[in-house]
Design a protein that fits this description.
Blueprint lengths: L3 E6 L7 H8 L5 E4 L8 E5 L2 E5 L12 E4 L4 E2 L1 H13 L4 H4 E4 L3 E2 L2 H14 L11 H9 L14 H18 L7 H14 L3 E3 L1 H10 L4 E4 L24 H7 L6 E9 L2 E3 L12 H9 L12 E3 L1 E2 H11 L3 E5 L9 E10 L2 E3 L10 E9 L16 H14 L3 E5 L7 E3 L1
Helix pairs in contact: 2-7, 4-5, 4-6
Length: 421
């Protein structure tokens, strides 16, 4: 019986998961997204075209694969429709390739209003959400007030929606938040009708039956480990479990059915929105990383904060997820750097540690190890042997520190700019 391989981010998201899923998909028959909402933008580039996926699994570009939106996902019908129609224009027939779990929760128009209202109420303590209604949707889910994709098939669908809307409006009134969802609501109802044309399934049976039939399954995560609601830099996190365990709860597979765990990280670090970031660079080096790396949110367009690679955080993420293979992204961004730094420990209130602390907001000072830059164009390399010795030393150090092999190295955004070891 086959096992589910899992691919996920090890930092604060934006690691480049979409490209890697697209590269790995030829080895799999099923690709399933297991958590998160449309705030996650997976960017893929090939054949001179650029695509941004928000909810649809990145395996959609490889023909003949089954793609699943799992039960751990929260789905915005409006944004899903826009995404699906854009892909249809480029020749991808999603109705034949894509199925959606009935247990996935729906983001309602009032969820977006609640998101904005809650952020406004926080004042200077804002989390920095994307305003897509994702947090309030997960709140409804755990408080047992959510509305799920399967409810679209119910004859009481309109009543279920009306009850949810009334509850949200009472909250918005208590927050003194002014809004008008008339146009948004009309668009949402049209979008849910569009959604119904897709195969709405009990995804836990679909995935487990695929495994029993000896089919290969790849579970695709969104965001990154350090944004996990339980193990990330709380409260500056997302509202779902972005870690490997989230694949079990989001798809309905048992822990002993997990196989390889692919952990993706950038050769440096980035973060979008508010929250602590120990290795953040506020100088010209940080600006250079942002400019060369095109570090702007795929969905929001927001500037990403940039900093050096943080091995304290990376080793923590590897431990939490049980990572078996590492995938390094964007080393080519630092092609021209004379010196490259890596945080190998923290000083927390003057005491040195290699463990990721409960809080990284105050009193945390990274301790760096410096490396000579490789100062050549990695994008020209197509095998590990072609890499310069300075870059190999960087990779070797990461492997020694983490105890996990770096098996894939991306040297550019295109499919072909990928080195397998």
């Amino acid at each position: 019986m086959k096992k589910v391989d899992v691919i996920l981010g090890l930092q604060w998201g934006d690691e480049g998961k979409g490209k890697v899923v697209d590269v790995l998909t030829p080895n799999y028959e099923v690709v399933a997204r297991f958590q998160g909402g449309p705030n996650a933008g997976h960017t893929l580039e090939f054949n001179g075209e650029k695509y941004v996926l928000r909810s649809i699994p990145s395996g959609i570009f490889q023909g003949g694969k089954a793609n699943i939106i799992g039960g751990g996902v929260v789905l915005d019908a409006i944004l899903f429709r826009l995404e699906a129609e854009e892909l249809a224009k480029s020749g991808h027939d999603l109705t034949k390739q894509l199925s959606i779990s009935k247990k996935a929760h729906l983001i309602l128009p009032t969820h977006r209003m609640l998101d904005a209202a809650y952020e406004a109420a926080k004042g200077s303590a804002k989390i920095g959400t994307t305003g897509k209604g994702i947090g309030p949707t997960y709140t409804d889910k755990v408080s047992r007030n959510g509305m799920r994709v399967g409810d679209l098939l119910s004859p009481d669908f309109k009543q279920i929606y009306a009850r949810a809307k009334a509850r949200h409006e009472a909250i918005l009134k208590s927050l003194n938040y002014t809004y008008d969802i008339t146009a948004l609501e009309q668009e949402w109802f049209e979008a849910v009708e569009y959604l119904k044309q897709f195969n709405l399934i009990d995804s836990e049976f679909f995935v487990n039956n695929a495994l029993k039939a000896d089919k290969s399954v790849l579970a695709e995560g969104a965001q990154g480990t350090l944004l996990d609601v339980d193990f990330g830099s709380y409260p500056f996190v997302t509202s779902s479990n972005t870690v490997c365990a989230g694949a079990c709860t989001g798809l309905g597979v048992a822990p002993n059915r997990i196989g390889e765990v692919f952990g993706i990280f950038k050769a440096y670090c980035t973060r979008v929105g508010s929250g602590p970031f120990p290795t953040e660079l506020f100088d010209e080096t940080g600006a250079t990383l942002r400019r060369i790396g095109h570090e702007f949110g795929a969905v929001t367009g927001r500037e990403r904060r940039c900093g050096w690679l943080d091995l304290v955080a990376l080793k923590y993420s590897i431990m939490i997820n049980g990572v078996t293979q590492l995938i390094m992204m964007k080393a080519d961004v630092m092609n021209d750097f004379e010196t490259i730094r890596v945080a190998t420990s923290y000083k927390v209130n003057g005491v040195e540690t290699t463990e990721f602390p409960y809080s990284i907001e105050e009193g945390v000072e990274p301790v760096y190890t410096d490396f000579a830059g490789w100062q050549c164009d990695l994008r020209a390399c197509r095998s590990y042997e072609e890499f310069p010795e300075a870059f190999k030393r960087y990779v070797d150090f990461i492997e020694q520190e983490t105890g996990v092999p770096v098996k894939i190295i991306s040297v550019g955004p295109d499919r072909d700019e990928t080195v397998l070891r």
